[in-house]
Structures are given as C-alpha cells and as structure tokens.
C-alpha cells in the first residue's frame, strides 16, 4: 500500500519562516547597497501557492538528507537586481556583447542572495549539480511543503522546501526559541437573537399537584374527581425548560386545542400583582 505524508502548516509556521528569512534579505541589501523595500518576501503553503505562480524555471537545488530546497527564477531576475543596485543609467548597459562590470556585479549579488537564503532555510544543505522540477507530490494538499516567494518588481523567485526540509527547519527554530505564534484572527460578531430566533423551546405549564392517601388511591374508579392544590381562577405558571418561572397565564381554548392567555404583571416592592 502506498503511503504519503499528510502534514498541514499553520500560520505560525509561515510567520516563523518569514521572520527567519527577512533579516537575511535586509542584511544582503545593507551589504550590497540595495533598496530593501523593493524586495517583498511571501511565505505560503505550497498547495496554496501553485495556482498563483507563472511557469517557473527550476535552476538550482540544495539537499540535506531527505530535505530538499528547490529554487526557480526567471532569466530577467539578475538584470532586475542590477537595476536595484545601480539604477537604469545607459552607462550600465553592455556594449558590443561584452558584459559590463555592473552586470557582473548584479549577477554576483543575485547568486549571493540565493546562497544566503538557501543557507538560512536549509543550513546543512549541499548544492546539487543540477536542478529538476519538483515532484507533483509537493503540490498536493497537506504535503507539508512550503513555498517562499521573493518578489522584485514584476518578477518572482521561488524557494520550495519539501516536507522533510520544513520539519528540519522547524526543529531548529524550536530549539532556538524562534518559533513564533501568529496573531489570532478576530472573530466576526454574532447576532445571537437572529441566530437563535428559530430555535424551538418547550415551555412546561404546571396545572398543580394532588395529594391522596394510599387507601384512596387504590379505590379510585373511572369518574372520580381529584382536587388539585390550585384554585380554578388562578393563573398557571409557565416555566423555562430548566424550570425557571417565566410568566403566568390563564388556561383556555383556541379552536380545538387548549391555549394560554398571558397576563400582564405589575411589580411593586418585588411583589407580583396580576392586572
């Protein structure tokens, strides 16, 4: 029988990984002199993010045991990094097919950022010789895989960690005390009267009690009358399902069924008076 992992990732995991990688991006920006606010880091579950991705180009992978980190980026990304660092002046463009030093620096900076992110996400990982597209299993619901997207302008780089890599990273974050708790989403207000309006409630009506001795009880016959302890002209109490008195009413008839006519009470000094 074939078995596969079934691992859900909570918001705590996504937030913890993002907080781990964001300082890496900020440090890289400080070292290379780039505008950090133009780089946007997003963490999501792999099965949530697949449908939102353009066809990626998987170009590099890192491995540590069963853990696997796969990287994909478009061909334009190194050029985007160059413009991030040096701007778009004409003097930085290549001439006669010879790469300009700014282009070389942009490419070097780009690969440096990838290596830093990979080292943080998969600390003991080793770069593989070649990268292949990830297996279809990582995109399945509850695969345990995590997708990190680094967005720069219209282009995006994907870092995909499989279940084993995510679990290894979470174990390290837990050991360091860096596993954070995501804030709980506020609950939507509930209109209780509207929610409970159609709920049926049984209201018991007590007619009274009768007390007879055992000898009289055994001699009772059809047609005998048993007197109750409540006067015929007195209102009957109506109770809640838990036995709490709610209101009183006179017993009567409505069509072919018995009915109860509710009373209006006047409370003076805590004493109930019928009107």
Kindly describe this structure:
With 275 residues, this protein is an alpha+beta fold. It has 2 domains: 11-89 and 100-176, Chemotaxis protein chec; 228-275, no CATH class. Helices cover 30% and strands 23% of the residues. The chain contains 7 helices and 11 strands. The protein has helices at residues 11-32, 46-49, 77-86, 101-121, 163-176, 192-196, 214-219; strands spanning 39-45, 58-64, 67-72, 126-127, 146-152, 155-161, 236-239, 245-254, 257-262, 265-268, 271-274. The strands form 3 sheets. It has a 6-stranded antiparallel beta sheet. Strand 7 (236-239) and strand 8 (245-254) form a beta hairpin. The longest helix is centred in the first third of the chain and has 22 residues, at 11-32. The model is unreliable at 90-98 (pLDDT under 50).
Helix percent reads 25-40%
Distance between the termini: 78 Å
Mean pLDDT: 84
- Specify the CATH class of the largest domain: Alpha Beta
Largest sheet: 6 strands, antiparallel
Strand content: 15-25%
* Count of the separate structural domains: 2
Order of helices and strands: HEHEEHHEEEHHHEEEEE
Query: Compute the gyration radius: what is it?
Result: 38 Å
| pLDDT < 50 stretches | 90-98
CATH architecture of the largest domain: 3-Layer(aba) Sandwich
Give the arrangement of secondary structure elements.
Elements: H1 11-32, E1 39-45, H2 46-49, E2 58-64, E3 67-72, H3 77-86, H4 101-121, E4 126-127, E5 146-152, E6 155-161, H5 163-176, H6 192-196, H7 214-219, E7 236-239, E8 245-254, E9 257-262, E10 265-268, E11 271-274
Antiparallel strand pairs: 1-5, 2-3, 2-4, 3-6, 5-6, 7-8, 8-9, 10-11
Helix pairs in contact: 1-4, 3-4
């Amino acid at each position: 029988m074939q078995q596969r992992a079934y691992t859900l990732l909570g918001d705590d995991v996504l937030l913890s990984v993002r907080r781990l990688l964001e300082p890496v991006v900020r440090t890289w920006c400080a070292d290379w002199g780039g505008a950090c606010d133009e780089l946007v880091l997003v963490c999501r579950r792999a099965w949530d993010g697949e449908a939102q991705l353009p066809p990626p180009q998987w170009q590099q992978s890192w491995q540590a045991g069963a853990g696997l980190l796969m990287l994909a980026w478009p061909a334009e990304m190194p050029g985007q990094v160059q413009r991030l660092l040096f701007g778009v002046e004409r003097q930085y463009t290549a001439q006669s097919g010879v790469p300009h030093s700014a282009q070389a620096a942009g490419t070097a900076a780009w690969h440096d950022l990838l290596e830093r992110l990979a080292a943080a996400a998969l600390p003991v990982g080793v770069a593989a010789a070649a990268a292949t597209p990830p297996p279809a299993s990582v995109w399945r619901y509850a695969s345990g895989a995590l997708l990190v997207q680094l967005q720069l302008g219209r282009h995006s780089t994907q870092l995909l960690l499989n279940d084993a890599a995510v679990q290894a990273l979470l174990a390290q974050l837990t050991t360091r005390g860096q596993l954070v708790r995501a804030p709980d989403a506020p609950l939507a207000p509930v209109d209780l009267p509207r929610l409970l309006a159609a709920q049926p409630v049984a209201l018991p009506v007590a007619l009274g009690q009768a007390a007879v001795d055992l000898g009289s009880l055994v001699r009772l016959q059809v047609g005998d009358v048993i007197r109750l302890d409540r006067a015929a002209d007195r209102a009957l109490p109506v109770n809640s399902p838990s036995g709490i008195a709610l209101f009183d009413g006179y017993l009567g008839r409505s069509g072919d069924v018995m009915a109860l006519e509710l009373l209006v009470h006047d409370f003076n000094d805590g004493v109930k008076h019928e009107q």
